[in-house]
Amino acid sequence: MSDHPSTEHREVIIIGSGPAGLTAAIYTARANLTPLQFEGYQRGGQLMLTTDVENYPGFRDGIMGPELMDEMKAQAARFGTEIVSKDVERVDFSERPFRVWVEGTEHRADTVIVATGATARLLGIPGESEMMGRGVSTCATCDGAFFREKLIGIVGGGDSAIEEANFLTRFGRTVYVFHRRDELRASKIMQQRAFDNPKIEIVWNTVVREVLGEEKVTAVRLRDTQTGEERTTDLDALFVAIGHTPTSAFLGGQLELDENGHIVTQGKSSRTSVEGVFSCGDCQDHVYRQAITAAGSGCMAAIDAERWLESQA
Ligand code: NAP
Questions:
Q1: Which residue in 136, 167, 131, 156 sits closest to 206, CA to CA?
Q2: Which atom of ligand 1 is nearest to the CA of 159?
Q3: pTM of the entire predicted model
Q4: Which atom of ligand 1 is nearest to the CA of 243?
Q5: Annotation marks residue 143 as catalytic
């Protein structure tokens, strides 16, 4: 790892250091492309905020999220990735070589892989951050299995919340959906599944005001959005599913984005709207959003970049 990249012009610059960016680094480094990776001040992506990861293949007893990211980083470094712990401020993809600015310094590259991930939106209520990984979660697929026969709550009324509520009924005794309005935003088919599921109870016109508990979540404080009345209800887990924000604003509109800000990739590839710029992981995927799918797409981006560089030679 270094603070001062040794050369200005690279074949590959990778922006981001979650499973997607680090897998892209491992593959491009092993292809002798000596990638320069800007991992950001908050390295490692969303797995740095989780505890046990039980669904990443290869770890039969599970692995802690931060430990998994440490391993990936060490693996990327072992093959020669130069990793810089700084954020990219802006880019210029209008001509080649592409340009990337970090703390005012310009770096140039023949190809850029954007793997900047996404951030789960949070409610910003007391207890939420403190209890993250101790009953509060933003990923039902990752953490649902920890709450067998427990009381589970989920916040949100969109497709994510309703899909995850249905999924969580595999584990929970009861799954409460706390929604701030009297109508769901989710697609009709998804709604019907929730209405038909006897384990799901939709708590209408309700916002969560506070997460309660010492070592782990024990209850939440709720407020009725119509009457203003407040009450406390016992709960073992609270899943927050109010959407994700992809990290794409720093691109300054130079790559095509969808309406939610995700980078648009073409077909079954990591190609973006700019030839020579590739993208992988949650900044371009709002459907799967798993560490393993992000890592897989990082591999795709590395192979796409490598082949594209060869085609330019
Ligand atoms: P979303 O559609 O933006 O829904 C967010 C939900 O969270 C809304 O119901 C919203 O309430 C609620 N919400 C937002 N901020 C809140 C706050 N501060 N407090 C309480 N509630 C809050 O996000 P999403 O469900 O993650 O879906 C994102 C996109 O992915 C959508 O296009 C969706 O269709 C798609 N998606 C599709 C599938 C699928 O087809 N299988 C699965 C998941 C996601 P309001 O309704 O009152 O605004």
A1: 156
A2: 25
A3: 0.79
A4: 26
A5: yes
